[in-house]
Specification:
four-stranded antiparallel sheet
């Protein structure tokens, strides 16, 4: 028998913005680091925030890039400048200069937990993983926008198998979260933690 399921999603707290610094718009980044990222640093440079990332593999680098792009777009109302070095599995992201002036905005401000995961959904067990007898639990973090769309996903804790982790990420990217309370204030972005479990039972 095959079990592919999930535990209830929970909202994760974002770091509070740091006022009057070029990197304040990306205050949440340390809490949104993919487990495949081996190094992540931020520094002000010439009035801009520069983020440098190195990852163990290309998929982890891409997931981290997507998180950074979403945060930059929402925080700065303009795209960041990104340079990717595929050979070194690294990237450099530079925020627009005007973005520092918007650093006091709290993208995650809202009341309580505004979103519920969609009902009746469960992860699809990858056929290749079943054939290999792989099982495990992937813990993911996702950025949910004001419409309930999953804007970006990272792997917080690996199942132990890249195949299962990637399947969980792809599954979550297709979800649409539902408002928990139609009258509540919905933030621009919400960080949600979603565990997905893949288990083979005889």
């Amino acid at each position: 028998m095959v079990l592919a399921g999930l535990l209830p999603a929970t909202t994760a707290l974002a770091a509070a913005p740091v006022a009057e610094t070029a990197c304040a718009p990306l205050a949440a980044v340390p809490g949104l680091r993919d487990r495949g990222v081996t190094a992540l640093s931020m520094r002000p440079e010439g009035g801009r925030c520069v983020v440098e990332v190195t990852a163990a593999d290309g998929k982890a680098l891409l997931r981290q890039q997507q998180i950074l792009n979403v945060l930059a777009q929402h925080a700065c109302a303009a795209p960041a400048e990104v340079t990717v070095d595929g050979a070194q599995m690294s990237l450099t992201l530079r925020l627009p200069k005007h973005c520092a002036a918007r650093g006091g905005r709290d993208l995650f401000a809202g009341e309580g937990i505004p979103w519920m995961q969609p009902r009746g959904v469960s992860p699809r067990y990858p056929p290749e993983a079943m054939q290999q007898g792989l099982s495990g639990r992937s813990q993911l973090k996702a950025l949910i926008d004001a419409q309930g769309t999953v804007a970006a996903v990272i792997v917080e804790t690996s199942s132990g198998y890249a195949l299962l982790d990637e399947a969980a990420v792809e599954e979550l990217r297709g979800w649409r979260f539902v408002r928990a309370d139609a009258k509540s204030t919905v933030p621009e972005l919400t960080i949600v933690r979603v565990p997905m479990r893949y288990e083979l039972v005889e």
